[in-house]
Write a structure and sequence with these properties.
Structural class: alpha/beta
Radius of gyration: 14 Å
Number of domains: 1
Strand order of the largest sheet: 2-1-5-8
Strand content: 15-25%
Number of strands: 8
Length: 150
């Protein structure tokens, strides 16, 4: 059993309110259909709405946010660090409660990004590093892979 970003399974939880079903991996959909994946959305677990403004990590990556050296801001400049942290810790709690050892998360997200995330001082740009949920899961010994590395 693995946790998987709900948006990767075509569930309508993206920041812009759209679905990714047309881009969903047949392999992931098959695993989900056989009950091997549990869909999660850290942003929803952090009580962010759908749709919501795009967001970025101000500097560094998710580790910087966990260490309280950075914040997560929406495109409009609102600080949503608290919500992203809440979602990350809720995701960790679910993973630990279910004894999950591996999680599949959406690449490039400030929450779920694995290797690359949205960052930048003025506007969103792709930066090297993990999102806040990925960083927290890794710190707790849970393997995280992106949909691009299945």
């Amino acid at each position: 059993m693995k946790l998987c970003s709900a948006c990767l399974l075509g569930i309508k939880c993206r920041y812009d309110g759209r679905t990714n079903l047309e881009k969903a991996s047949p392999k992931l959909l098959d695993l989900y259909g056989h009950g091997e994946l549990i869909p999660i959305c850290p942003e929803q677990m952090g009580r962010l709405p759908i749709p919501r403004s795009g967001a970025r990590i101000l500097s560094g990556d998710g580790n910087s946010v966990l260490d309280k050296n950075s914040r997560i801001l929406t495109d409009g400049g609102n600080d949503v660090t608290k919500q992203y942290l809440r979602g990350a810790y809720e995701t960790l709690r679910v993973a630990q409660d279910l004894n999950i050892k591996e999680v599949i998360l959406k690449q490039k997200s400030p929450s779920c990004g694995c290797g690359y995330t949205q960052g930048g001082l003025v506007q969103r740009t792709l930066v090297e590093g993990d999102g806040v949920t990925t960083a927290l899961l890794k710190r707790n010994g849970i393997k995280v892979i992106s949909e691009e590395n299945l």
